[in-house]
Amino acid sequence: MDCPLINRDIQRVAILLLETVKETFLRQAEHGAYVEPGSALRFVGQRPQVHDSHSIIVTDPVLFVAFPFVELESSRHHPGLSERDEYHPRTLLQNLYGFDVLTSRGKQQVIHKMSVCSQSSDTLYVKQLWCLLIGSDILITMSSQPSEKLLGETIMKRTDSPRQPLRIEVIDTYGSQCSMSVSLKTTWVDFFRHVMLTIYGNLTKIMDFELVDETTEIKSRFITPS
């Protein structure tokens, strides 16, 4: 996992979470592997502070959820009985019964008795949207459907803010290093709090620190939001 907005601690937690999802919720069927619909798993990482083994740093929670949704599609667009395809959508009957049912039974679905079904090959498929929520501000999604189709008219996608968060590497006097992302509008006070919580797991008196540039001068641009 290589995401510039995720620090190393969160990366380790996210990778361990995804490996556990594979071990716990991955199923095998006649056509290939699939993730159990509705699966959910939450991890929180902990590690001792670098210079104080009695203090514990707790990471933001990482949550994985496999959201199922039903869609009417032609079976011609999906693998046949003799084909294998990893993580392909399974029919509604396959999900309900837990195994691959005969194609003839799929053609007898109630949906074929309704006017919404226009083709004899139309079948109800259970597709999935995989979501990886990191903390409260980073959401990574994966689906066979484009995001525009999934959003529909229920969620508004903002495109008026092209500026990306800043990626910052912080190294203290002891050589401890951590990376983090901050908004361009982050003030020095908020940035300081974020650094202290990320590196040391607690808050320190802000008056004990100064933020200077390479000429050891305090710049107003560090203190005043842009």
Explain how this protein is built.
- The chain is of the alpha+beta class and 226 residues long.
- It folds into 2 domains: 8-151, no CATH class; 166-223.
- Helix content is 22%, strand content 31%.
- It is built from 6 helices and 11 strands.
- It has helices spanning 8-25, 92-97, 103-106, 147-151, 188-199, 220-223, and strands at 26-29, 32-35, 40-43, 46-49, 52-58, 62-74, 90-91, 122-134, 138-143, 166-171, 177-182.
- Strands 3, 6, 7, 8 and 9 form a 5-stranded antiparallel sheet that branches. Strands 1-2 form a two-stranded antiparallel ribbon. Strands 4-5 form a two-stranded antiparallel ribbon.
- A hairpin with a 2-residue loop joins strand 4 (46-49) and strand 5.
- The protein is elongated, with a radius of gyration of 24 Å.
- The model has no long low-confidence stretch (mean pLDDT 74).
Salient structural properties:
two-stranded antiparallel sheet, 226 residues, alpha+beta, 22% helix
Mean pLDDT: 74
Number of helices: 6
The portion of residues assigned to helices is 10-25%
Distance between the termini: 32 Å
Overall 3D form? elongated
Number of domains: 2
Largest sheet: 5 strands, antiparallel
Order of helices and strands: HEEEEEEEHHEEHEEHH
Q: Approximately what portion of the residues adopt beta-strand conformation?
A: 25-35%
Rg from C-alpha positions? 24 Å
Stretches with pLDDT under 50, minimum 5 residues: none
Task: Give the strand tally.
Answer: 11
Q: Which structural class fits the helix and strand makeup?
A: alpha+beta
